[in-house]
Recover the amino acids of this structure.
């Protein structure tokens, strides 16, 4: 399987240039802004995921403290509701 020189699977017509060499500076600014927005959204998502993880850990700890206690125990009943 060698490279085909006459328009095969990797022919010149299937190559799409990433960016033109004469791209306007506005395009670079727009790309930078898009990248910053993506990073901000990822940071926000990481914060939400961390909060969810902490909440799940807290609930697991509360539930493990109630293991073996009657379900009607006032402390276990109120802890499970939060």
């Amino acid at each position: 399987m060698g490279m085909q020189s006459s328009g095969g699977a990797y022919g010149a017509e299937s190559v799409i240039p990433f960016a033109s060499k004469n791209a306007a500076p506005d395009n670079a600014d727009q790309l930078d802004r898009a990248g910053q927005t993506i990073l901000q959204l990822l940071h926000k998502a990481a914060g939400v995921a961390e909060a969810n993880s902490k909440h799940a850990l807290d609930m697991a700890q509360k539930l493990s403290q109630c293991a073996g206690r009657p379900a009607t125990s006032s402390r276990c009943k109120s802890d499970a509701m939060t």
